[in-house]
Amino acid sequence: MINEILSDQEMTRYCRQILLPACDIEGQEKLKQAKVLLIGVGGLGCAAAQYLGAAGIGELTLVDFDQVELSNLQRQILHATANIGDNKAQSGQQAIAAINPEIKVNIITTKLVGTSLYQAIERHDVVVDCCDNLATRVALNKVCFELKIPLISGAAIRMEGMVSCFDYHADSPCYQCFSHLFGEQQLSCMEAGVLSPIVGIIGSIQAAEAIKMLTGIGTTLVGRVLMADISTMSFREMKLNKSSKCIICNP
Ligand SMILES: [Zn+2]
Question: What CATH number corresponds to the domain at position 67?
């Protein structure tokens, strides 16, 4: 029985996705069996989690130790005014449960470092990086490289954003190869500002790439960096090669 694991309810819920020849029942079943770890339930994370949850990722783990603030609500669309003061992972969990009660949403409300980060990543199939700082990005890349678990990396600030995917195959570049190119420019949204829809655009692209990575649909952004500038509404792409100087994937 090919559709044994999808209930009638699920067949109806996901029918527009199942209609896609590239996805089909088989793809939807893969999504149901998938476990995705999402780091950061802020602007990018809210958009990515909303689509991943609605699309039927069987198990979604939201990680955030931060609380919802009034100044987040302009762009962090899973959190409502009534959630101010609540933990972001918890608030995200409630919002996704309301959208799709068929899936399991776990939360981690503490900071993941060292062993706890390793153990969390180990029990998932894909990591979606929606964090807001370089130290976390670098740490995620290191563990994902060790475990060979794909990483979908996204960032947005002002009216600009970027996305890339890392699958850690022998010839593929890693996030460190990428950050090595740009050095350590670090500005936060608090300092530089951010226009609301850019986080939705980038977070949605991250969700699409995670779904593609899990189902084998299409071609992912492995070896490429997609850059968006919504002030001119232009999208550019940069080829990303494995760096011969990379301390993670090419020691
Ligand atoms: Zn590398």
Answer: 3.40.50.720
